[in-house]
Design a protein that fits this description.
It catalyses: glucuronate acceptor + UDP-alpha-D-glucuronate = acceptor beta-D-glucuronoside + UDP + H(+). InterPro entries: UDP-glycosyltransferase, UDP_glucos_trans. It comes from Caenorhabditis briggsae. The structure is a single chain. With 307 residues, the chain is of the alpha/beta class. It has one domain: 3-Layer(aba) Sandwich (Rossmann fold). Helix content is 40%, strand content 11%. The chain has eleven helices and seven strands. A seven-stranded parallel beta sheet has the order 3-2-1-4-5-6-7, sandwiched between helices. Helix 4 packs antiparallel against helix 7 and helix 7 runs parallel beside helix 10.
Length: 307
């Protein structure tokens, strides 16, 4: 049995107090260690390609929470952005077990074709919509397919796998290694790829695309623009996932489509707060965590017995 207890994955708005969150955390802590001792020490593999500070910090925070709760966490860190090779985020360094993989030659070629180190600077100058990504979609998708190509000969016995759904290579790797307890942790509020795989609505007439330049009040023309942006997001996701699947051929013998891989996780956590973000229909498999933070100092407090 695989039990998920959202210890620190608490979605709350600004009206909630830290005391309430801490009380929930202490309750879950006591429940986990006394009622379900069998989940102590489970080995967790977190697939975390080194592509940017925000993604590193987000997934490292998730890993830190699990490690702090007694899980044996390993970060698998294939290098993509070589400008971050010597960057040691404090939250990442707190994880006891890390497997760092050198950059794949194909990834290096793709980055050089994008402008080398200048490619990182484009992140801060390009627009917030999908158009900037669409212009470099083939080179960007090469980063993930080459990384996936070089990862599948690494094997170790682990029990739980975590990955962002921006790529499916992590899910395929978990399946390849025989890890059947898989979770998806999305640093976005909801990408088109996972929604397509699970049949969740991406109706562009009233839902903004994942990378949209629109707002909650749009004209008819802006709705049409949002439809086009939704199409570009969908095309972007399909290109990445199809090339990932091609990179696994001959090695991975599991699922045949990326949609099947995207459906492997038991739960799809998203970095969304239903009280603050744009309202949208959702399935029970998608869980909004509304931001993730790890306690800097752990306080082991014995709660009073309830008679």
């Amino acid at each position: 049995m695989f039990l998920i207890i959202p210890l620190n994955f608490v979605a709350y708005d600004k009206r909630d107090t830290f005391e309430t969150v801490n009380n929930l955390g202490h309750f879950a802590y006591q429940l986990k260690y006394h009622a379900y001792p069998e989940i102590q020490g489970k080995k967790v593999l977190v697939w975390l390609p080194v592509t940017g500070h925000s993604h590193l910090k987000f997934m490292s925070t998730v890993a830190h929470i699990l490690q702090d709760e007694g899980y044996n966490v390993t970060l698998l860190l294939p290098l993509i952005d070589y400008t971050l090779n010597k960057t040691n985020l404090p939250i990442t360094e707190k994880i006891n077990h890390k497997i760092r993989l050198d950059i794949h030659p194909g990834v290096l070629r793709a980055i050089n074709n994008m402008g080398g180190k200048a490619a990182r600077q484009q992140t801060w100058t390009m627009g917030s919509g999908i158009y900037g990504f669409d212009g470099i979609r083939y080179l960007l998708s090469d980063l993930y397919s080459y990384t996936c190509d070089g990862i599948f000969h690494n094997t170790e016995l682990l029990e739980i796998g975590l990955s962002e759904p921006f790529f499916v290579c992590g899910f395929a790797l978990f399946d390849h290694l025989g890890i059947d307890k898989i979770l998806s942790i999305d640093s976005h509020i909801g990408l088109e790829g996972p929604k397509m795989a699970h049949g969740q609505a991406i109706t562009s007439s009233y839902l903004p695309s994942a990378f949209s330049e629109g707002s909650d009040q749009v004209t008819f023309f802006e709705r049409a623009v949002n439809l086009y942006e939704t199409y570009l997001n969908r095309r972007f996701a399909l290109l990445i996932h199809d090339k990932e699947m091609a990179a696994m051929q001959g090695i991975y013998k599991g699922k045949e489509t990326w949609e099947e891989l995207m459906r492997l996780p038991a739960y799809m956590f998203t970095n969304s707060n239903p009280l603050l973000d744009f309202p949208n229909p959702r399935t029970s498999k998608f869980i909004e965590v509304g931001g993730i933070a790890a306690d800097e100092k752990r306080v082991d407090e014995v709660l009073p017995e309830v008679g």
